[in-house]
Amino acid sequence: MMASSYSAKEEDGHHSGPAGLGAATRTRKPDNTAFKQQRLPAWQPILTAGTVLPAFFIIGLIFIPIGIGLYVTSNNINEFEIDYTGTDMSSPCFNCSQNFSWNSTTPCKCVLSFYLDQPFESNVFMYYGLSNFYQNHRRYVKSRDDSQLNGDERSLKEPSKECEPYRTNENKPIAPCGAIANSMFNDTLDLFYINPSGSKTQIPLNKKGIAWSTDKRVKFRNPGGSNPNLTAVFKDTAKPVNWHKPVYELDSEADNNGFINEDFIVWMRTAALPTFRKLYRIIQKNNNMTPTLPRGNYSLEVTYNYPVRSFEGRKRVILSTISWMGGKNPFLGIAYMTVGSICFFLGVVLLFIHHKYGNRNNSSDIAS
Amino acid sequence: MLRRRINRLCGGDEKRLDSRTIYVGNRPCPDTEAFIPSKFCDNRIVSSKYTVWNFLPKNLFEQFRRIANFYFLIIFLVQVIVDTPTSPVTSGLPLFFVITVTAIKQGYEDWLRHKADKEVNKYLVTVLEDGRSVRKESEKIKVGDVVEVVEDETFPCDLILLESSREDGTCFVTTASLDGESNHKTHYTVSDTEKDLQALTATIECEQPQPDLYKFVGRMHIYQQEQEQEQELVVRSLGPENLLLKGATLKNTKKIYGVSVYTGMETKMALNYQGKSQKRSAVEKSINAFLLVYLCILISKAIVCTTLKYVWQSKAGQDEPWYNQKTQKEKDTNMYLKMFTDFLSFMVLFNFIIPVSMYVTVEMQKFLGSFFITWDKDFFDPEIEEGALVNTSDLNEELGQVEYVFTDKTGTLTQNNMEFIECCIDGFQYRYRDTLSEVDGPVNNQQQNAGQEKEELFLRALCLCHTVQVKEAGSEVLVDEVDGMDGLLPQPEQETGFIASSPDEIALVKGAMKYGFTFLGLESKCMKIKNRQNDIEEYKLLHVLNFDPVRRRMSVIVQNNSGETLLFCKGADSSIFPRVRPEEVDRIRMHVERNATDGYRTLCVAYKKLSAEEYAMADAGLMEARLALQDREERLISVYNQVETGMSLIGATAVEDRLQEEAAETMEALQGAGMKVWVLTGDKMETAKSTCYACRLFQRGTELLELTVRTLKDEDKKRDVKLKELLQEYYKKAVLDAPPVRPGVTRSWSTANQDYGFIVDGATLSLVMNPPCDDDASQNKSFFLQICQSCTAVLCCRMAPLQKAQIVKMVKNSKGSPITLSIGDGANDVSMILEAHVGIGIKGKEGRQAVRNSDYAIPKLKHLKKLLLAHGHLYYVRIAHLVQYFFYKNLCFILPQFLYQFFCGYSQQPLYDAAYLTMYNICFTSMPILAYSLLEQHISIEILLHNAALYREIANNAMLRWRPFLYWTLLGIFQGLMFFFGVRFLFSNPALQDNGQVFGNWSYGTIVFTVLVFTVTLKLALDTRHWTWINHFVIWGSLAFYVFFSFFWGGIIWPFLKQQRLYFVFANMLSSVSAWLVIIILILLSLLPEILLVVLRKPRGHHSQQKKQSQSNVGGNQSPESSTRPLLMRTFSDESSPVV
């Protein structure tokens, strides 16, 4: 008793366990269990050329077709991109970008025309793209209040400190607060098809289904529960300083207004990289007979509200179809093809090495 | 007059603080005018470190003294104070966890100690107070109290034995709980104190408490009242034989009374259990070196980022675009302060590269891993019914790194199970042949006999010159209980059992018994022996001149019935020969040397008749020396030396000490594993040499280089000149002429080379180590060391304990600082056990001191093979892999986060969510590596044991050198780059879902993190060679847990969280085919180099080939293989090559 109690002290409390155990087992034989004797049945895989070589070939044989498939899929996606920043003198939006001022009440509009040389057969997704816009800057990313956006009344009155300096305006809490919300993209984009006859047909743009459904349903909620009168709910709050209209006037439809406005939700999902695109509208395919966007001339009418020149950013509009793997991106296809080829190539090389050296190895083993 | 002198002495002693005065029974003694109440500490044992009140601050303080904990605390504080990217929780939680677990563990241990303390302190003991016995709690005993202890009770404090219930004034104790020696030790009462304890007036002067269990000096002044007259002062010396130690148990004695001299924390027991120096393993040093590298990486990353941040910000519009304004506070902050906090923020962001959890995991691995040693049934010895004992788990992996093995001979290589073989009386050899045929007398091989008188004198000497006790008849029950050293021997007369501190003595007494002289016992200082005529002879034991390893002899002074005073002395030949008449020596020397070459232990016996004057002088000298408080040992030895001169040699004995089971196989295996085995023994050179041959440390072809007193003897030259010459000659032979050894291949591999064995003795060694003049000293030393290192086996004989440690130290501090291991079983090995990197104690017969001071204790030498070759090897591989893996997995964890800074404006934006940052090391990737580091057997234990050469593969810290570290680091960097840029290219179009919706930054991080978790776990899976169900469970379990956790974490809007960053991010990621595809290809691509390397490396590794073959049960392949192996390897592995 004494000895074991002291041995704990001797170890300075670090490792008295084994010592104590040693004292305990002093009188009895250690258990003959597989675990204690380190004899647990075990699978002992051995990576040999024999097992790895087929794996290399199999990987090669699987990956190359997948890669080709991905590459073809990606190539089949129609994508059209147009820059409307207006930095060039020649650009129709040059004036708008030059004359931008926060206080102007009359929106500046510009029209860009372009020509699609290939018809877009399936649903077309319309993105806006920004460059050199650091949505992933730490100060920016954290400048939001998720509980306010989730409809929490208290956070509506008293937004999180993280929202500074976009927390209050004229002693009223800003709703939605924070830098992200404040800088919401607010250009309006309209797309017209120019008939061969010269008349313009506005293409219907669907603004539903552009945000993650979980965000729309759960993460973002308007305060005041089911109160349909958003004006009343938001009455004690200020609009974000850079917004032209308050949050409850984002859309006319009730289920797309306030915090659950999908444009707003999309914007609130901060992008990973400084050059990014965000889904703006969806052009639904009407019928199976005609392509969604037939070949031809189009014009894009931009209500130019969003300044990017101050930070040398760029604005783009992207029209793209979507495949099962998402938007156009040849990377995956190339990667799969490359890795598949490498594996296959390595397989061949290894087979050669194995054949040449492995034999010699074996023979030497036997000969000696 | 005398008294006055003594008083003066007392006074002087009191003023010097190194002695204390105790008033027996706390009665004032007549001499001192004022009774000074004792100011000694009470008998409370406080082994606990903490109280309820100081636990928290004290424990926290102790924990944060560790450098790692302190570092994490700093990181945590930075996070709290500065506005950092990750919340303080991310580093605070793991730190809190670690601190709490440690605190709970230490608290629990302390609670146990409190409990044990309480049990001891509240134990009721009987104290004599004013003539009455009073039951008192043990903690209330004061110094000077007279305490009564009954049989089988432990002593509550250190006591001076005053009265014993036994007639002869002795009592028996066992010190099993102190030093593990379970044999009975005899302690003696102070004479003249037994009459009446109530009337006893005495003071005791003794030294201040000191931890040595076997040393005590003091003296007792007894004031005897002689019929109302002037008191008579008697002085008695006190030594360790009078001192009963706290913790020892009274045996075989009904009751004793003793006066307490040391109490509580001043008892020898308490003093002895204060900290042992912590040994640090080479792995820990490697960890620290790697840590430094990673710290540099961390700091340089932070510096790079901070610099680039300010470069980037200097461009117009970047620092504060309209959409991302700074707060007023940020704008006001001083630019340089801002820079500094930015730097700190980056540090915090990247601090996960040095994980808290690594320390926890390493500690856990060591702690849990050491259980496998205690659990191993192969280490269980049925004789002593004990298995291995692990005293420290810090050194598990060091067992796999041993380069030098220093072994004791007696009790370690040999069994220390002595058997009397033969003796030589006056130059005639007596060999005791067979118990059956010639019981009646000695056989004379040479048809000659020494005179009857000489013969009997010799046998009497054997019977008298010892400290053996006869186990009492009737205490037969105890036979099993006590250290049964004689129980193992064939006992011709079963009723007699002997107890002795050394087995040699028993062997000698038994030997004498075979020749007709039986030692009957010691009763009240009277030794009885039965001679051949079955007459009882009685001898009065006057003095015992104790044995000690420095003197290497012991003597007794006895008085026979006719009043003659005789001194019998026995000891090593080297210590006896100079003390006897030279003309007697030669006849016996021949026998002694022959016996020694046969591997027997020899002792010489001498005697001397003491005249009355001589005895009186010796007696006085001994008494004086024993009373001395200062330098008692030295004084005693000088008296001993005076007495033990001019003796006449009667004869010599030879005792066989059989080799330990499988000693030779073990030694051969160790040598085959590339370890150099050095035998350090106090024994004679010849004996030791023969043991070395028997153990196959020296082979027939081994050329022996001898550097001993004998070879140094040269008429023409002085010793140091000769020494230098010899050293140079040997150096040339062994070091220079030997072909250069390729690294990793040790000499014994190649049979072409000459093997050298080196023999050195203690005297020569001290000449080398402590030369009389300084010139050439360092050269000699380095020559010596190099010769030693290039020899396959080194034998150092005639070593004093301290010299053993000196040798170990010399090797330890030599170039390359090789890992040393010392193995021994006796008290004389303690110094080398403590000195070596790893100290192994053998639970042998020479007590428990070696075991107590060792890091690991095993019952037998043969267990060393498995301990090193299997356990050591596995532990090393496990922990080395653990360490490398930990650094690797955190490098590829943090590298993407670092790279992300280039894409987020160096804003310290974390790539991963805080939960992932926190959980990565705690939950997602910690269990598989822990399981691996506990269970991995990359080569099965059987193969490791059969193929000792495998041990060389990990020699010199092979898995933790800079090359493998670089490999792991490059692998980590490669994978980190893969993870980040693979996803980066994918995100060049963030529309990854088939509904056109886009992914944001948290999806980016989650994809990277998923790839990361899967890759590092699968990397470990690739490395795992031994898949038990636990490995399967843990590896697949933690991956499943990651997936489950991610769903769960993203599946709920968490209240109390400021941001719902990961809400449905993981689920959405899984709904994207592209994400799946990118995850798969990135995992595969990251593991590709690893797979490739495994495949390419295989054909080259010689042993892996062997492994494979034996593992796949291709039994037939082994024999052709072994023929290719060098000769030395073949010798033993062929003998023992069962088909695995």
From TrEMBL, chain A:
Plastid in keyword set: no
Residue stretches spanning the membrane: 46-72, 331-353
Superkingdom of this protein's organism: Eukaryota
Broad class of where this protein is predominantly found: membrane
GO cellular component terms attached to this protein's record: apical plasma membrane; endoplasmic reticulum; Golgi apparatus; transport vesicle membrane
Subcellular location: Apical cell membrane; Cytoplasmic vesicle, Secretory vesicle membrane; Golgi apparatus; Membrane
Recorded topology in the membrane: Multi-pass membrane protein
Alphabetized InterPro entries for the sequence: CDC50/LEM3_fam
GO BP of this protein: phospholipid translocation
Pfam families: CDC50
Keywords, sorted A to Z: Cell membrane, Cytoplasmic vesicle, Disulfide bond, Glycoprotein, Golgi apparatus, Lipid transport, Membrane, Transmembrane, Transmembrane helix, Transport
Region Disordered, annotated ranges: 1-27, 144-168
Keyword Membrane: yes
Family recorded in the similarity comment: Belongs to the CDC50/LEM3 family.
Protein name per Swiss-Prot or TrEMBL: Cell cycle control protein
UniProtKB/TrEMBL annotation, chain B:
Name of protein: Phospholipid-transporting ATPase
A GO term, aspect molecular function: ATP hydrolysis activity
A UniProt-annotated Pfam family: Cation_ATPase
Top-level division of the source organism's lineage: Eukaryota
Entry cofactors: Mg(2+)
The keyword Ribosomal protein is annotated on this UniProt entry: no
Membrane disposition: Multi-pass membrane protein
Signal sequence coordinates: none
Domain P-type ATPase N-terminal: 37-91
Catalytic reactions on record: a 1,2-diacyl-sn-glycero-3-phosphoethanolamine(out) + ATP + H2O = a 1,2-diacyl-sn-glycero-3-phosphoethanolamine(in) + ADP + phosphate + H(+); a 1,2-diacyl-sn-glycero-3-phospho-L-serine(out) + ATP + H2O = a 1,2-diacyl-sn-glycero-3-phospho-L-serine(in) + ADP + phosphate + H(+); ATP + H2O + phospholipidSide 1 = ADP + phosphate + phospholipidSide 2
Keywords: ATP-binding, Cell membrane, Endoplasmic reticulum, Endosome, Lipid transport, Magnesium, Membrane, Metal-binding, Nucleotide-binding, Phosphoprotein, Translocase, Transmembrane, Transmembrane helix, Transport
Any single GO CC term annotated in Swiss-Prot or TrEMBL for this entry: plasma membrane
Enzyme Commission code(s) on record: 7.6.2.1
